[in-house]
Design a protein that fits this description.
Length: 141
């Protein structure tokens, strides 16, 4: 997480804390808004706190690099790349039982399979196969 309002999202360049697979780091408020826009309900931010080098450290079970290796040695509030240091958030969100509760119409894809012979293949080596077609209908509820 990064500090900020619902419009704050960090989009790191090539790496964040030496990780290549980080594309977006939203603020807790932005993530809450994203979840609400996706239809989740009762979205609440339970906790936001800094990730510390005390909890993310080398141990006898984890002897490779750890958080301290990815933070600026002169400013532990920043990563080696100069971005804000990692912050963790606990957010709880519920999926509505009825998607229509979210206030939008739900499009449901209904597939009815009715085999209708379009073409009957006959002749040597065809085995009398039928090529069928399926009907697909979309309903809005």
């Amino acid at each position: 997480m990064v500090e900020g309002d619902e419009n704050t999202v960090l989009v790191p360049g090539d790496r964040y804390a030496q990780m290549r697979n980080v594309y977006f780091i939203p603020s807790a408020a932005a993530l809450k808004m994203w979840l609400e826009k996706c239809g989740f309900v009762d979205v609440r931010i339970v906790d936001v706190c800094a990730t510390t080098t005390e909890e993310q450290r080398r141990t006898e079970w984890m002897i490779t690099e750890s958080l301290a290796d990815f933070l600026d040695p002169d400013d532990s509030g920043k990563t080696l790349e100069g971005y804000p240091a990692p912050v963790r958030a606990v957010i709880i969100a519920n999926k509505p039982r009825n998607p229509a509760v979210a206030g939008e119409k739900v499009s449901r894809l209904q597939i009815k399979v009715k085999k209708r012979p379009l073409l009957k293949l006959q002749g040597p080596g065809t085995g009398n196969h039928h090529i069928g077609r399926h009907d697909v209908q979309q309903k809005t509820v």
